[in-house]
Design brief:
Length: about 200
Amino acid sequence: MKSESAWHYDGDLKAALIDAARIIVETEGAVALTLRAIARATGVSAMAPYHHFKDRSALVAAVAAAGFDQLYTEKIAALASAPGDPAQRIVAGSIAYVRFVTEHPELYRLMKSPELADRAAHSALALAAAQPGASLHAMLAELAANGRLHGITARDAGQILWAMVHGIGTLAVDNYLANPESLAADGAAALLAGWGAL
């Protein structure tokens, strides 16, 4: 974990608090995340975080939103490096999703925790959380528009693909699966082939 002297705010204490919170989550788990803990980690007064987060729930939502932003950024980078075909890009996105889960297990658990199930209570989190799914839906909608998605709607296909990568990622984190990225690639390809997209 960073020492207090390692933090330099450049006028953006909120960003520094979120960074500190992420480190706490990734190294100690969400249970260790408190406003007092991030104050200590950043070397500010115990009351300073309350100027940016009204309570722990707001802090947790901000950390989760940052996690979804990172997941989306990494997924888009993976899509950009894949061939232009939507089906191939979906496979690449599936691999990127599972990679994120396995590289950031505690953060991902926080992002998907029941504590944040009501996303309507946190508008920034709701927007960030919608981005990865929206990009998947756009690719599936493109396949459907081109007559390459049979026997299933783009919405249902998206939910099945999300359930698959979520399951593979979390099972791998819990040491039930090896080679999760290969499984994600093979699983996405098999589903897409079954729907006539590959």
